[in-house]
Amino acid sequence: MKAKFATFIIMLIFWVVMSGMFDVFHFSxxxxxxxxxxxxxxxxxxPEEGKPWLRELFGMLCYLPYLFWQIIVANLQVTYIVLHPRxxxxxxxxxxxxxxTLKRPISKVTLAQSITLTPGTITxxxxxxxxxxxxxxxxxxxxxxxxxxxxVAKALEIE
Length: 159
Fold this sequence. Notes:
3 strands; 65% helix; mainly alpha
């Protein structure tokens, strides 16, 4: 029951921050969606009842501001590229693979979704420990896995 409640709270906070719609209709739809997600998917975020779920909840709450900041920075970088007079010289798409050190499936999914949420990069595939990412520029490709993987590991990997 704690896992379902924690999942609901995480999803609701994320929904409120990302949606920006606070009227009764939209907020009630958000609450209903978060309840359904918590009911059906809480075991994805908290797979075992005996594990320290509070630590994972705290880890995710600490990770989200970092992720939001990375999304803002990447938006500005992509905006710069798109508005640059020599845009075609700046764009250098790459499809590359890297090995992740993350062990838990939820950690790998969190990393993949974080990469996809960050403008200019899309996670194409995860197979075992290998992650395939499409990046708009070589700089975006060079920055992965890097700090984002380290922060996901700190938030979700149980030592």
